[in-house]
């Protein structure tokens, strides 16, 4: 029996990377999937390939969420997956001393405002039934400081905390609407291209990035999706306000004393 049979799942940032893998895994488990993304062309392309329905949605735009609520007034699962590091547009450094306010705000607008708006939509779309699963994709960077990506780390830490507020709010209201956060690290997607480049030293750079990861490799998008399937399913009916690391063991110990 497919684990998500009969469920309507909405995924943000679904056109590539982790989001696309989530859409694929949810479809494989029998769900009806609405793949959303800011990138219309790539989103439509991925949705067609996976047999999902595509809807354009910029997670920063309140009007886009209102349009989704109109067209999809009820859903069972929402994954707030869309996110940016801020390095994609690379206007300058992202450390606490030199980051520009514009860059800081841009990262928070997508990662944090987008997640807030998504949770707000999902509560409205789930409360009539009184059940549902909201999955917020945070990061390992939401649990530790990252000097060179301060805005990203701050936004992901706020996503972790907002997850718990949403979980408690829903429980207080007597709804079995669960909200949990995922904390991936070093999952090989296009998000890494700005950091790894495509030059002859790419393999060397990749090895350097995972040198402190106990499992000594990048993770795959399917490995993140597998955990999300569990959280989306009724198998996780007693799991809310929790955080799940998908990081090859990185957060299990200190990189400073790996032995
Ligand atoms: N890849 C990793 O190692 C890693 C690690 C930790 C956390 N994460 C998180 O996982 C999520 C997915 O990461 P990924 O590696 O697949 O990234 P990615 O860059 O490959 O894909 C991100 C997707 O989000 C979409 N997007 C960007 N801005 C958007 C917006 N305003 N509205 C709607 N869609 C938007 C993009 O078009 C793209 O399809 C992100 O939240 C990211 O922070 C990734």
TrEMBL record:
Going by the entry's taxonomy, the superkingdom of the source organism is recorded as Bacteria
InterPro entries per the UniProt record, alphabetical: NAD(P)-bd_dom_sf, SDR_fam
Cross-referenced SUPFAM superfamilies = NAD(P)-binding Rossmann-fold domains
Residues annotated as signal peptide = none
Any Pfam family from its record, for instance, is: adh_short_C2
Family, as annotated? Belongs to the short-chain dehydrogenases/reductases (SDR) family.
**What name does this protein carry?**
SDR family oxidoreductase
Q: Which organism is it from?
A: Novosphingobium aquiterrae
